[in-house]
Specification:
The structure holds two protein chains of two kinds.
Chain A lengths: L2 H4 L2 E6 L2 E6 L10 H16 L5 E6 L10 H4 L5 H18 L3 E5 L3 E3 L1 H8 L2 E4 L4 E3 L12 H9 L1 H10 L3 E2 H7 L4 E2 L5 H13 L3 H13 L2 H20 L1 H11 L2
Parallel strand pairs in A: 2-3, 3-4, 4-6, 5-7, 6-9
Antiparallel strand pairs in A: 1-2, 7-8
Chain B lengths: L1 E6 L2 E6 L10 H12 L7 E6 L19 H18 L4 E5 L2 E3 L1 H4 L6 E5 L3 E3 L13 H8 L1 H9 L4 E2 H7 L4 E3 L2 H16 L3 H15 L4 H12 L5 H13 L1
Parallel strand pairs in B: 2-3, 3-4, 4-6, 5-7, 6-9
Antiparallel strand pairs in B: 1-2, 7-8
Classes of the chains: A alpha/beta, B alpha/beta.
């Protein structure tokens, strides 16, 4: 990892709980290639540490994650493809992990950030949080998250959510089943800690076996779909429609 | 009996047989299939609705009175219409106001977004008539999951629009039919204003993922319904309907 990237994702492990923090608050933790690279290395560290039972993912600052940093790769040939390939592999890696993954969403989880929230086993948030997949509004196809979201909330609901684009609040995310736990904003941190404590109180072998079994139920098809989704999404981003929309949004 | 209007990228398709609560005939289903299959790139959203106070009461069973082949033609027509809606390049919004029963409820299987109203009557009460709703099972399972599908296809009881929202069969539920129509219209316009290529590719990808483009599965579901069509049990149950008047 380049020294520039090292601080973009922080990992603290204490006993059976590992805490991973997206640490790019000045960019609302937007997923740049550097941040994704840092996340990959941190998750690899957790994967090697079999004493960890629970991985908690959070974002530094006011927001969990503002989404893919498409702006940073707009003028870089192949950049969007690498970004999308990297997020797809990260979702697969999180899914294959032995530990239970908890996402704590404060503020906002948009696009790729909401994709991360979706692939967690359990996701906590608060009613005012802003979540969703506005990809189609930008001429982009949310193809990487589609298989994970369809698996989590059902194909029919995923169809409505992804085609309609836009964002919704934490209450709606909870109704959809995208967030599993909804807490008052000022209780989010404490209640998430209580959840983590409950999870970590389980017998490690039973928790790991159950987690691994549940994650394997979607089989290799889901992983394959996430990878094909990255290719499809990159192809759409390269197209004229997306380029026009993205340049209008980000300039350049 | 199918009305089509184009307005600012929205194709508004109306089942137009209000005096029969838009009961479906093989000709209507063929027409609906042709409309969905024939949409061009200028169409960015489809709004399917029904004239009058109900979306659709189901198949026009009076056709089965003198024609033992009518049920098979209706089932085939329904299956083709659902597929054509799913394959349309533009997203399909269905406004299921008032009632969406049997074949009318099955049509929702081809929708991307379903709007209804709280008091709407919905359901698949056809096993009572000796008819199997298997034809819609694959699309319904993709929409609401296999457990809820067993519930809805085996129990002939009607359920409300509010129930449909809870199970995921509907995505929006308004207070009354007028509210549902207004909401569906608003959604269709919003979809039509989005970048069309991204929407088209996303719809296709979702359909590839959930298997709703897989003709083997859809044909098998249709065959399961066709196996009973025109049979003695169905003829007997339908004949009892006519004597009851």
């Amino acid at each position: 990892m380049s020294s520039d990237s090292a601080g973009l994702a922080l990992l603290e492990t204490e006993g059976r709980v590992a805490r991973l923090t997206l640490n790019r608050p000045e960019a609302r933790n937007a997923l740049s290639l550097g941040l994704l690279e840092a996340l990959h290395l941190r998750v690899d560290e957790v994967a090697r540490d079999t004493s960890v039972s629970v991985l908690v993912i959070g974002g530094a600052g006011k927001s969990f994650c503002a989404g893919m940093d498409l702006k940073s790769v707009l003028n870089e040939p192949g950049g969007a493809g690498r970004l999308l390939g990297s997020i797809a592999e990260l979702t697969i890696k999180l899914r294959r992990l032995h530990a239970v993954v908890v996402g704590r969403v404060q503020g906002a989880a948009i696009g790729g950030g909401c994709g991360l929230a979706c692939v967690c086993d359990l996701t906590t948030t608060h009613p005012e949080a802003k979540m969703g997949y506005p990809e189609v509004d930008l001429g982009v196809c949310p193809a990487v998250v589609a298989p994970w979201l369809a698996e989590k909330i059902g194909a029919g609901r995923a169809r409505q959510v992804l085609l309609m684009g836009g964002t919704f609040d934490g209450t709606r995310a909870h109704e959809l089943g995208l967030a599993t736990h909804l807490f008052a904003k000022d209780r989010l941190e404490a209640e998430t800690e209580a959840l983590i404590e409950r999870l970590a109180s389980a017998a490690p072998g039973a928790l790991r076996a159950t987690r691994t079994w549940l994650a394997s139920m979607g089989g290799a098809d889901l992983e394959d779909a996430a990878r094909r989704g990255a290719e499809l999404s990159a192809e759409v981003v390269r197209g004229e429609e997306a380029q026009t929309e993205l340049r209008a949004r980000f300039g350049g | 009996m199918i009305l089509v209007e184009h307005e600012e990228g929205v194709a508004r398709v109306t089942l137009d047989r209000a005096e029969k609560k838009n009961a479906l005939t093989p000709a209507m289903l063929r027409e609906l299939t042709a409309v969905a299959a024939g949409l061009d790139f200028k169409t960015r959203a489809v709004l399917l609705t029904g004239a009058g106070d109900a979306f659709c009461a189901g198949f026009d069973l009076t056709l089965c009175k003198d024609d033992p082949g009518a049920m098979a033609a209706l089932l085939k027509g329904l299956s083709q219409a659902m597929r054509a809606l799913r394959r349309a390049g533009a997203p399909v919004v269905v406004c299921a106001h008032g009632a969406a029963i049997a074949g009318g409820c099955a049509l929702l299987g081809g929708a991307d977004v379903v709007v209804t109203d709280r008091g709407a009557k919905m359901g698949y009460p056809v096993v009572r008539l000796g008819v199997s709703p298997a034809v819609t099972s694959a699309m319904l399972a993709q929409a609401i999951g296999p457990g809820a599908t067993r519930h809805r296809l085996l129990d002939p009881k009607l359920f409300s629009g509010a129930d449909a929202l809870r199970s995921g069969l509907a995505h929006y539920c308004e207070d009354d039919a007028a509210g549902a129509l207004a909401r569906a219209d608003e959604i269709a316009r919003a979809l039509a204003a989005k970048p069309p290529h991204a929407v088209r590719v996303t719809k296709r990808w979702l359909s590839e993922l959930d298997g709703s483009l897989d003709d083997r599965v859809l044909n098998a579901a249709l065959e399961a319904s066709l196996a009973l069509a025109g049979g003695d049990e169905e003829r007997g149950r339908l004949a009892a309907l006519w004597t009851k008047g």
